[in-house]
Design brief:
The protein has 245 residues and is an alpha/beta fold. The chain has seven helices and ten strands. Helices cover 29% and strands 16% of the residues. β2, α2 (41-52) and β3 form a beta-alpha-beta unit. The mean pLDDT is 97. Bound molecules: 2-phosphoglycolic acid.
């Protein structure tokens, strides 16, 4: 595990963007898996700035969405797709055919899962996944207790995920389930970037990085991955036993 502590979200964004683009530049048809949420926002701003300055070329990239709330798609303000359209896909002018994203409004969520799995296969596996961590230790919508082997599935959301998820929406939403890539899919990605910002993440980051590796805390399972890059700001790193860079 490569642990990097930054002073600010912007500094973190630059470091992650450096790592991601150094790798992706040498792939012929790379597959990028971006998380939504507050944490990667600075990274996506940095990617936009680099693309605008011709320092980042994503024209040969494909994209697989990490997760989506059941009952929502890009038409719903606050959905995962809504955020990524706004912060990444539209500013980078990504063509629709290059994106596979779960439609949480689809009648058959199992078909959505199969669609996601085959897109990943068709594009030779995920090259880089950008991940956040929930305050309960979830990764994407893989909640505590999820097996590391599980693949794309509909997950029943933990009460804390239902509650913290409200922050993305302009009005109260019933958030019961999500469609998510499974830990099995995520752990097969070639490179994982786990990002955490803020003091409210410090306790779960400490447990995930220094506590037992267990399904009880899905983020801890990432420590078994051969290319895990953990990027924290000083506040999120505040409870680690050794938090000096
Ligand atoms: P956040 O969400 O980036 O909005 O804190 C992280 C997560 O729940 O995975």
């Amino acid at each position: 595990m490569n642990l990097i502590i930054s002073d600010t979200a912007e500094e973190m964004a630059q470091r992650v963007a450096d790592g991601v683009s150094a790798y992706m530049t040498f792939r012929t048809n790379p597959l990028f898996c971006p998380a939504s949420g507050d944490t990667p926002a600075a990274l996506y701003r940095e990617m936009q700035a680099r693309a605008k300055a011709n320092r980042l070329d994503v024209s040969n990239w494909h994209f697989i969405g990490l997760d989506e709330w059941v009952g929502m798609n890009g038409a719903d303000e606050g959905s995962c797709r809504y955020y990524l359209d706004r912060d990444l896909f539209h500013p980078l002018m990504i063509r629709k055919e290059r994106i596979c994203f779960f439609d949480g409004r689809a009648d058959d969520p199992a078909r959505e899962c199969a669609r996601g799995e085959s897109f990943i296969k068709e594009h030779g596996g995920i090259d880089v996944a950008i991940l956040g961590i929930g305050t309960n230790g979830h990764i994407a919508m893989n909640e505590p207790g999820t097996s590391p082997e599980v693949r794309c599935h509909v997950s029943v959301l933990h009460p804390s995920t239902q509650a913290t998820g409200q922050k993305y929406f302009p009005s109260y939403q019933t958030l019961t389930c999500g469609i998510t890539l499974g830990l099995g899919d995520i752990l097969e990605a070639r490179h994982l970037y786990l990002l955490a910002i803020g003091e409210h993440k410090a306790a779960i980051v400490q447990k995930a990085l220094e506590g037992p590796i267990s399904e009880v805390l899905p983020a801890s399972l990432l420590r078994g991955h051969p290319s895990l890059h953990v990027h924290l700001d000083r506040a999120a790193a505040g409870k680690l036993s050794n938090n000096k860079e």
